[in-house]
Amino acid sequence: MIPRRNGILLVETFTILILNGVLATYMHSHLPTTLFRCCYAPLLLFQGLWYYRIYIVGHEAAHKKLIPAHLLLNEIAGSLVLLPLLTPLNIYRKIHYFHHGFNRKDPHTSALDTFVVKGKYRTLKTAYYYVVWYLSVFCGGFFLHSLVSVILFLFCPPALARKISPAFNGWNYKDQLKAILLFLAGILIHLWVFTFFGKTAYLLSLGLPMLVFAWLLSMLVYVFHYDTTMGEHVRYNVRSVNRIPVLSWILMNFNEHATHHQYPNIPWYSLPENRSELPEEFGNKNQSTRNLFVAVIRQLKGPHVIYQP
Question: Domains of the chain: which residue ranges?
Answer without folding.
Answer: 4-308
